[in-house]
Amino acid sequence: MRDAHLVSDRIVGKDVVSFTALIVGYAQCGQDREALEVFTNMLKEGIKANEYTFSSILVTCGNLNLPINGKLIHNIIVKSGFESVIASQTSLLTMYSRCGLIDDSLEVFDGFLSPNQVTWTSLIVGLVQNGREETAFSKFRQMIIQSANPNSFTLSSVLRACSSIAMLEQGKQTHSIIMKFGLNRDKFTGAALIDFYGKCGIIQSAKLVFDRLSEFDAVPINSMIYSYAQNGCGYEAIELFHRMKDMVVEPNEVTIVSVLTACSNSGLIREGLQIFTSLKKKQNIELTRDHYACMVDLLARGGRLKEAEILIKQVKNPDVILWRTLLNACRIHGEIEMAKRATNRVLEIAPNDEGTHILLSNLYASTGDWSSVIGIKSTMREMKFKKNPAMSWIEVDRKIHTFMAGDDSNSRSKETHQMLERLIETVKKIGYVPDTRFVLQNMEEKEKEKSLYYHSEKLAIAFALCHTTDMASCIRLFKNLRVCGDCHSWIKYVSKAVGRDIVARDAKRFHHIRDGLCSCGDYW
Question: Closest Cα to residue 484, out of 519, 454, 516?
Fold first, then answer.
């Protein structure tokens, strides 16, 4: 681009075409600031932009997250009479969504008389990127109704929306549409389908999609390995990783993270160490901090905390994630002194790291050191930290129902609480004992027991049992944080007592529970 700019500087009487060519060139090379500088110079010279100039410079504003600049250009577009041009409208829509102004993006979309495939896809992608998954699926339905054919990128984005909040039925509908358009063997939609089924805990369907693909590269293979990892299928993930050599596909950074995560989630320390050691010896593979973080997690969660700490010290400039991974394992194993060292390291790098304060507070609470808990919480209040509340959600009759601990806001809360009380009495008779170690508050033992009963996971499952008509169906539960040990034990007893399979996805992995046994083997 340097040579292109030198040539442009020598042009006498430059016009919109020469300026636009330079702007497009910079934009395509990822040099967005340079593109914006050329556009500014163009306006200073009194040259009016055309639709191609506007399309490129709006994407540049989106990439740089410059909503104020984007809005100024939007005003210029209106004054120049290009607002109704599809290329400009689509770029406006994309710019606003990339800047997080999704409502502005929707407003631009509403101005389209007949949106095309590119426009629909841009909107759906923007909605998914901004956490508006349900709206994204709603727009996708409108797209199909209006006979605008989706492409593999549209469908992959829709599946991403479905997997983010586990919209199982909607994802299955999208799968049917993929089959209708003959894209089921496409490696990109295939990878999205594998990811969707994996994140919904249906590993058999993910494997079926994978086996039917017509061609393979790292993308669908990574999706399959990560799906195995999330669902506790460590040996299957390792087997596919080793098969990549026969498939003539080179593993990349994502592959390595996925297979090491699989080892960590399944407690396969020996196998994980073998893979990590063999990769360190390969000259064409450079292990990153993410890979070291996976190994730290594998060793530390397996109780080999000293080895994990030594491994961190082998990394040049270890980051917050590495030390926080060790700190989390210290919380699980009650290792106070090492936790203090890890905390100090994190706070040296990032003094305002909220997650570290929360982890340390939880560790002190689990050991009954309430004075230290009070001290940390006081610091958190001074720093205006806010802890994300634990939430669980469940789909019943194609509706998502969300629960928080002690929640009685649901319109059917009375029935739910009555069902929960019956379930607690039933599972106590077959061996469930409330584990008050997981109550991170200073209160009497009876109060601790009572607080355990109304965790969000328990409320969600009680609600599902109240309101599902098919008593043989699987209950699918999702939680934004790690499921607590008491709830994990309680859910196992419930599955045995009511004869229902329960699949629980938390922030770490899936738990497939049947007849009182969990796929994680109580290791998570």
Answer: 454
- CA 451/CA 439 separation, integer angstroms: 8
Rounded Cα gap, residues 290 and 277, in angstroms = 15
Following CA atoms 136, 139, 143, 144 in sequence, which dihedral angle do they give, to the nearest 10 degrees? 80
Predicted model pTM: 0.84
Question: Are the C-beta atoms of residues 331 and 363 closer than 8 Å to each other?
Answer: yes
Query: Strands across the sheet with 510-514, in order?
Result: 399-404, 391-396, 475-479, 502-505, 510-514, 517-518
The answer to whether 517 and 206 are in contact (CB under 8 A) is no
Q: Is the pLDDT of residue 374 over 60?
A: yes
Distance in angstroms (rounded) separating the CA atoms of residues 498 and 495: 6
Q: What is the SS3 assignment for 475?
A: strand
In the prediction, which pLDDT does 31 show?
87
Helix locations, 81-130, DSSP H: 86-98, 102-110, 117-129
Question: And the tokens for 301?
Answer: 């969660």
Classify 147 in phi/psi space as left (phi over 0), alpha (psi -120 to 50) or beta: left
pLDDT recorded at residue 377: 84
Write down the pLDDT at residue 8. 54
Q: What is the pLDDT of residue 395?
A: 83
Q: What is the DSSP letter of 406?
A: T
In the predicted structure, residue 265 carries a pLDDT above the cut 80 = yes
Q: Looking at residue 491, what is its pLDDT?
A: 97
For the segment 208-228, what is each residue's pLDDT rounded down to a tens digit? 999 999 888 999 999 999 999
Cβ neighbour number for residue 164 with a 10 Å cutoff: 15
* Phi, psi dihedrals of residue 48, rounded to the nearest 5°: -85, 135
Confirm if 524 and 265 have CB atoms less than 8 A apart.
yes
Note the pLDDT tens digit of each residue in 81-92: 887 777 888 899
DSSP for 222-247, written as a single string = HHHHHHHHHTT-HHHHHHHHHHTTTT
Q: How many Cβ atoms are within 10 Å of 465's Cβ, its own excluded? A: 18
* pLDDT above 90 (res 296): yes
Q: Which of 386, 388, 379 is nearest to 347 (CA)?
A: 379
Q: Which of 36-50, 169-183, 320-334 has the lowest mean pLDDT?
A: 36-50
Helix (H, G, I), strand (E, B) or coil at 58: helix
Residue 505 carries which DSSP code? Answer: E
**What is the C-alpha separation between 515 and 402, in angstroms, rounded?**
26
Transcribe 118-143 into DSSP letters: HHHHHHHHHHHHTT-HHHHHHHHHHH
Residue 380 and residue 361: Cα distance in Å, rounded?
10
Which residues in 398-410 are b (16+ Cβ under 10 Å) and which e? eeebbbebebeeb
| Residues across the chain | 524
Cα 224 to Cα 14: distance, rounded to the nearest angstrom = 53
